Structures are given as C-alpha cells and as structure tokens.
Amino acid sequence: MANEFDELIGAVNKGTRLISLSGLTSIASKAQVLMRLRAETGKRFAVVADTNYDIDLWADDLEFWESDPVATASGSDNSAPRAPHSALVTLPSFDTDPYSGVSPHAETQERRALALWQIAKGESDIVVMSGRSLIQRTASVDEIASLGCELVRDADSPPEDVVSRLIAGGYVREDPIFGPGQFSIRGGIIDIWSPDAETPVRVEFFGDTVDSIRSFDADTQLSVEQLKSVAIAPMREFATTPQDLKDWAFFANERFDQPKFARTLRDRTDFAKEGETFSGWEFLMPMVKPLTASIFDHLTDYVFVIDEPATIEHSLTNLYERLVTTHAAITDAGDVGLDIEELFLEPETLRTKLEGVSRIETRSLGRTSAATDEEFSVGLEGGNPTGREGVQRGRSEGADGDKNTLPTGRVSASSAPLFLFPTAEKSLELEIQSRSTRKFHGDIPAFVAEFEKDDQIVVQTSGMAERLAEILREYDKYIPQDTIRVGGLSSGFELTSENLRIFTEGDIFGEETTSGDQKPKTKGQKPRSKSKLGAFISDFRDLKSGDFVVHIDHGIGRFDGLQTISSQGSEREFMLLIYTDNAKLFVPVERMDLVSRYSSGEATAPTLDRLGGIGWQKTKAKAKRAMRDMADELLKLYAERKLVRGHAFQPDAPWQHEFEDAFPYDLTVDQAAAIEDVKSDMETPTPMDRLIIGDVGYGKTEVAMRAAFKAVMDGKQAAILTPTTVLAYQHYETFKKRFAAFPVKVDLLSRFRSTKEQKAVAESAGKGEVDVLIGTHR
User: Fold this and answer.
1) Collapsed DSSP state (helix, strand, coil) of residue 573
2) What is the rounded distance in angstroms from the CA atom of residue 93 to the CA atom of residue 200?
3) Nearest to 89 by CA among 64, 66, 116, 51
4) Please, which residues have CB within 8 angstroms of residue 350's CB and are 6 or more apart in sequence?
5) Taking Cα atoms as reference points, which of 304, 396, 281, 294 lies closest to residue 355?
6) What is the pTM assigned to this prediction?
7) What is the pLDDT of residues 455-477, one digit of tens each?
8) What is the enclosing helix (H) or strand (E) of 556?
9) Cβ contact 245:275 at 8 Å
10) Among residues 149, 143, 142, 177, which one has the least CA distance to residue 163?
C-alpha cells in the first residue's frame, strides 16, 4: 500500500479536487487510513457517512486510531513531522420529520449546536456528519460563533446579559443544577453547566464585573479549580428569545391566513404569543430567523470524505421524496409547515456545493461497480448515465406539468437519481485493499493457530487483555507488550500490503463490540447516555391492542398494534397510536423511547388527548409545577435530615469479609456498586435513606443480607419487611442458609405461624434475642 498511500498524500497536498479510493471494506480500515492521512498532511477532513448510527461508529474508530501508534506508524517515515492531536467533532442530523409537529430530540439538538459552535471557533480538525447534514440549512457562521458566551475574570459582563444569552441559547434554569444545559442564580452568583464541560462553573459577580470563576462538583457543591476564563457553549444552533416567538405568532397569522390552517395555527400561537415554545417550533422559526447558510459555509477549508457515495445518494433521494410527500399532505390537511427550501438545500444547489469542494470518495467495490449500478438505475428511470443532462431535462419537463416533478427551484418528488457523485466525473483513482478478519466464535485453538506475532488485538477492558495474554501464553504464544490494546474498534480487518492484521474481541469470542464507552472522550464530547429503549422493550412486549400509552409530545393515546409501511422498496415498522376523533399517529419503532405505558391509580379509562392540541401541553405544564413544589418540599425535608444525627456503623469486621466471600456467585457491576454505597451510607452519622431498584433475579436480596449482617456485627438488630407472606418465608429460608455459619439468630413473623408463635417471636425480638426479623407489614 506504500505507493498508493504516498500517491494519496501527494494528491491531497496538491488539492486534487476529486479522488476515488476503493478497496477499503470497513469503517475501521477507512478510519485508520484517514488518521494516517491527517497525520501526514495536516489537512482538515469532513467525513460524510450515511446515518447518525454510522457517524458514531466512525467517531469511535477515529478516536481509537488517534490514540494508537499503529494509525500513523505503519508504512510511513516515523521521523517525519506529525500533525498535532486532532480535535474530533460529530455533527448528527435531525432524524425527526420536520412536518410531524414534533421537536428534534434534545440530545441531537445539543450535539449539533456544540459541533457547529466548535467548528465556528476553529476548534475542529475532523468533522463526522451524516448525509442529511449536508442538506440541512443552518444559521450563518457569524451567528453560530456569537452563540453562548465567554466570561473572563476581572472583565465586565453584566449578569442580566449573561442570563439572557443563556436562555436564548437553550439553557434551562434549575436550582440546583444537576446536568449540562442548566443554570441557576443566587444573588450575584450564577452556576452554569456547559455541554462541553465535565463539571459546572460558578461565576461570582461584583456589580457587572466577573469577580471569580470556579469549577465545582455538582454533587458536593465543593470548588474544584479556580479559572481565569470560561467559554459557555450553546444548547441549540440558533438563538431564540421570547420576543422572537411573539414575532413568529404575528407573521404566522399573516402567512397562514387560510381558514383551513386556523385550528392548528391557534394551537401554536397560543403558546408563541406568551413567548413560550411548543412542539415542533424549531422547524417553524426560520420564518422569522431565516437559515441562510449550510454546512459548506462552515467547512470552507476541509477535504470532504464521502463514505459509500451510492448509499448516501440513495438515502438523500428517498429523503427528498418523503419531504415533498409529507409537506403536501400536511398542507392539504390544514397543518402549518415551512417550504422545503426554507429548511433544506435543493438538489441542484447541493450538487453545485459538492462540485466546489475537494473530496475523497471511498467505495468498497470501486467506481467500475458503482458505474454499473448507476447506469442500471438511470436506465430504469429513462435518463442517461452521465446524469447531468438527465436531471436538467427532467426539471424542464416538470415545468410543463409532469406530475412527478416540480418547477426549477423546487425539490422533485421523483425517485430518479440525484447524480450528486456521478462516476463519469474525472477523478484520480486509487486502490488500497483491505479485507475482514476471520470470525472465530470462541474457537480459541483455531484463533491461536492463525494468530501471528505481528498481529494486533483490540479488546474493550484491561481484564480481557490480561485474559487473552494468559490464553496465548498457555499456547506458548509469546507476544510483544503492545500487541493487545484496550479500546473500542467496530471491527477487525487486514491490510495485506502493510502486513497489518487487527483482531477485535468480537472477532475472537463472537461478542459484539460496543466501541466507545471504555475509552476516554475527546474534549467537548460527552459520554453517550444509555438508551432508555431497552427499559421500554420489556414493557412493550406486554402491550396489547387497546392498551393506553403516553407519547412524550402528544399525550395519552391508544395502542393499536404494529404496522409495516412500504416506501420505495424499503419497509419500516411503526407503532400505531389512536387519539381523539380517531386521529392516527405512526411512531417508528426506533423512536419507541418517546412512548411509555400509561399507568394510573384510577380504575377508569383515561381520556384520549387531541393530536396537535394544547391539552397535553397544559397537562405537562401543570405536572412540572407540581414537581417543582414537590422538589421544594423534598429539599426542605433533606435539609432537616442533614441536621439529625444517626448511628455510624464501624468498618467491616473480619466476619463481614468471611460472610461476603461465602457468596457462591460473581457480583455484577451494579450489585457491587450498590453494596459499597449502602455500606458507605451505614458508616456515616447521617440517617440512611437509599432506594435500590432491580428486576427479579438481579441480586437485591444479597445487598440486603450484607447490610443486615453489617448491622448485626455492630450490635444492632435488622428488620426485613416484605410485601407478601410467601416472599417473607422465602427470605427467611434464604437468610437462614446464608447466616448458618455465624452466631446470628434469624426469625419470622407471618400468618404461617400461630398466634402463640408470633407472640413468642415478638417477645424475643423485644429482648434483643433475635438479630434479624423477617415479616410482612402486618
């Protein structure tokens, strides 16, 4: 690969406008080549992948190669100068249909705002984005750069201006703050948690002057470090004030003045007139704050890397078609929505933008295969393989009334190829061959037989690294110290010309790697939160048609089963929810995190909400006020608890270690953490108040037994309260077996025992003769 790679470096350095790179069959191998290219050229790159899921894989693999010497050492002169550490930014696209009346996911808004802000401030070297991000319109570079704020010690920054900028940038006021995107005010002190920071900051003002800036621990409220300055990143990619929303209400009434829009418009303007947001407002605000730029304006000096252009073009073609269809549908139904070109670039504009940037197109199978596919698809549509004339002709015909196209300047509803990356375009063609590594599915002897001393292994944990090293030693395979690396890599691969072969933990043991959680994040990148979808799935399997559910944006509806809907040869599965007046809402199964089962203490059936109405918004506002009141009461309660002195238990006694070592199973990570937290609580003088939640069989009883044993070892009695008589008896038998080797008396109070026995047990407990008493609430 050395000659091809050297040629690739030379072409990038010369600014070659189009390079076609084939042969790399996995994201992991493409990321390795790209990081080497970045190290050798010092250029900035913008990677365009198909979906948000793909950009996360790309980001994880790029981060791995950034920290791994293999990324830059193989096949290159190690004495050559290297580019500094690469700042990696991920720019996801909005997965939400802009005409569904639903706001984008808050996490996606946060990630987009942070990415665009970092790009505008020149803090990015590699940007990874989805294909849809290419066509989404954005605020201008100057507008993005002006979002957020920068505070400098001893400089003037009026606190009221800071608060106004925070609110306009999407921050929410909470007291105290507990997560990114929040701020609180106490006199001349403002606490702020920026989305790119690990900890919040406390800014103290003396009049309009910043007197001090300190980072602090959100849990303990203790200061961590004094700072000279701090940059506060925005939470959304455009500033919006209450006045902007009021302005929107005025102009919306003028623009959507037809009677058919009256009801849906009123549902939104009722909120906007009060300066409050409503569901889906982000896709309507460009009417008063136009989106005048695109990602191309932000990445003027970047080399674009288009990963599998045919896939991206197919996705964008389908997207344009869906936009035309859904916009027409909501307009006919009397719902409000902006024109497509106000939110997205038109195909012709996108094509022109792409022609003006340097780009590398990575195709696994090369341009010859892509050209064949392109010619076949054009033949089906009746166009021509070069693409340019076919598209122009289709547009001019559309102006004369072709029902599948729109006049020039509009997005076409035809599924004809867009020809964003035509293979007929002249390019420099290079090939770097890679192939996937073998999957062993736990067959260790087969893996050891194939493993060679120059091979590399990537595992997720240091424990697995030690295990693999021991396995290889058992088979008399002695390896260099840096052969096994801890990190996240989406897949293994082999570059034969480089004599480089990488195996991952998943290749060896048949387990799917989850690249990302075990390795450090780049600056400004928050650890991804665990999806709540898994928690809902177990609940979803129990749903039956007719059950009531709650959608986070639309309220109470009735679940009416799953439906598969076909569109342009692809099928997607949706949940069908029924609302008042038999209105239907289709929720993609990949967005089931927005839906949960309805539960209530009342036996009567709930009233269905009106789809698109404001009833649910009012219900949420009322609930939020009630939660704030409850939070105030809890704060007072826990403040009072802090003043009460409780019993501080002694550290673990020797018998405690023996008792815990007798547990016949390995503790889970969460189980071990719960045990340590409980024992830590017991050893402090503050009255203990802890809730442990886990499904059946997750080990809650062992946590309780260890806590009870610790109490008994310190001369206290322990009471175990159970909801049912059967469970009380089961716990009694379990406790007796576990405590049998120690001088601890365990007894039971339940209806399984006679009145005489119950009286005797109670008397014994009163005299301190029973160490652990198990019973029901009775």
Assistant:
1) strand
2) 27
3) 116
4) 134, 135, 316, 418, 420
5) 304
6) 0.64
7) 889 888 887 888 788 888 888 88
8) strand 555-567
9) yes
10) 149
